[in-house]
Each structure stands twice: as C-alpha cells, then as structure tokens.
Amino acid sequence: MAKMHLIATCIFGLEAIVARELSWLGYTDQHVDNGRVTFAGDEEAICRANLWLRSAERVLIKVGEFKALTFDELFEGTKALPWGDWLPENAEFPVNGKSVDSKLASIPDCQAIVKKAVVEKMKLKYKKEWFEETGPLYRIEVGMLKDMATLTIDTSGMGLHKRGYRTLVSEAPLKETIAAAMLMISRWKPDRALIDPFCGSGTIPIEAALIAGNIAPGAKRSFTAESWWQTPPELWKKAREEAADKAKRTPDLRIHGSDIDKDVLSLARYHAAQAGVADDIHLQRMPVSEISSRYKYGFIVCNPPYGERLGEMPDVEKLYREMGAIFKGLDTWSFYIITSHMNFEKLFGRKANKKRKLYNGRIMCNYYQFYVPPPPRDKLNLVQ
Q1: Helix (H) or strand (E) holding 25
Q2: Which CATH entry fits the domain spanning 4-154: 3.40.50.720, 3.20.20.140, 1.10.472.10, 3.30.2130.30?
Q3: What is the pTM of this model?
C-alpha cells in the first residue's frame, strides 16, 4: 500500500486530543497545526481513521501544497499535482474553497481556477475533452492560508460527528465530536461513575458508553471513500471486522444522564437505542438541584445552558450558583463544564484547576476542569 499524507481536521483546541487518538491507532508520524493534524498513512489508514476517530471532524487526503500569490501560480501548481492517481475518468469532483490572510482572497475565483486546472490534468490523463462526472464523489478543497495553497480530497463525506445514531435532534445539540473530546480530556474511565445533569438529547452519556465499550464511532455509518477504487470493499470489510472484534461488553457501567425536559429525554432514549447502548445508560427526569450520588470519585461532565438568548442570563447565572452549591456535596468528584459565560468561575464559587478554549459551533467557550486527586486503588468502588 502507498504511503501518503492524510489530514484529520478538528475544532480549534482539540488538536492534541486528535493527535493522541491517531497515536492510539498507530499513526505516530504526525504534524500538528491549528485545526488539523497531518499524519502519514496508507489506504487502510483512510478506513481506520474514519471509523475510529472520535474527536476529529474529517479525514482528508493531502494531494499537494505550494505557494500561490497569483491565479497563474494557483493554476500551474494545481495542474502539476497527480490528480490522475486519484480521480477516475467518471469522477464527480466539485471544488470547495477557503482563504485566510492570502492575496488570493476570492474563494469563488480560487475554486474556478482549481476546477479548470484539474480538468486540464484529466484531459492529459484520459485523452478526452469532456467529463460527465457521473461516478464516485471526490470532493476537492483548496485552502489558502498565508499565501500557501493546500489541495485536499475529502474521504469522509458527512462530518465525522454524524455517527449514525442522531437521526432526530433536539434544540442546540452538542456535537458528538466535542462531547467525546470533553470525556477524553476529563480522563474519565468506565470504572468510575459519570453524571451529565443537562444531558439533553443524550450526546455525552452516549459517547461515554461508546468509549466504555470501545465501540468505533463510525461503525454505523458510511463514508465517501467507500465508493473509491483506491479503498475497495475488502479493505473496508477488514477495518469494520477489526472494529467489531475490538468492541467489548462492559458490565456495571454507572453512566447517568438527567434533564428537566421530558421530551428531550425521549430523544435521548431513542438515540441511545440507535447507538446500541440503551442498556448502558440510566436516563431520568431530574433538576440539577436533586443531583446526588452514593458513589465516590465520580465525574460530572456537562454542557449547561449558556444564556445566549435575550432575557435568559439572570436564570442561567442563578443556575450556575446553584450548581456550585449542589456540587459541593460531591466532595470527592471531579467536574468538567463547558460554557461561554466569562464569569462562570465566580458564579460557581470555585476557581478551575484548568480551562481550555473550545468552540461549540460558532460560540467561543471555556471548558472548565475542576478535579480532585485520584482515589486510592482500594477505595475506587466504595459507596457513601
């Protein structure tokens, strides 16, 4: 199999988590940039990375990179790349684009130039003048960053946050990739209790159950590259069989989700069933004021309301004060809370041990981490 440069894109702030996941998969030849991790891999890596990455957004093939200050340079640089090695004669190859801090700032013009250059290269390869584009999809992206052009092909199709279990959505859902990253940052382990007191449609508890069962997050969905000759069905079959073999049943999980909205809890139960983890999660209607646990050394990982809507802020600030008071009773527990409120620590009544900037959609948030020392090994399962 041929070695190539692949790119796992991610939300800003999650690069180290994606790099760690790639290392777990055995891909240690990496380079980390803002919003992406470039790594060396082969055709099998395309399959495995798409199936297994929990916190990445997409897996791209890096076709080439070069400096382009003019449209002529963009055209010639694109045309020089080996498009014929990837695109079959009947390929559908739309071009997306983005430009940041570059002289070539017109995205539509960049897209048109790249499309024309790829067509010219295809003409040389296939000795024909017209391409109907009725075959498999190879979505190309031209990314201009500080006058450097990066040309990629998307292997994923839908973003990797689309696990296949969220066929129904609730209001303002937390993306699955962010939820998984929050859990991995927290270092929660399946032998510890976990509570999400604002579980909404169930994303955090479901992602926790998938992690606990070592279930590949992409196991229930398809990917664009499944229709490519470079990654034939037998390669995907092998990768999916590996994922099935590595899944495990973890008994006695203590994953709890609660919310005050009974309708959104119905969604959570449906999503958990779709993900195959309904038996691993306990969901119930409960206000945060009633949160308690007989277990010690547990974790609360949650995405409470932010108060972004007009008139909501007083209620949200009251909620944060209430959280601070209630959580004090869980004195051996660690808390991991994401919110956009800049005064959260003051309202919560405690300074975070650590915080990390993350984007939930277009909202800039902080992920506040309040942790306690790990428990003595002989006291891990003690109850109060």
Answers
A1: none
A2: 3.30.2130.30
A3: 0.94
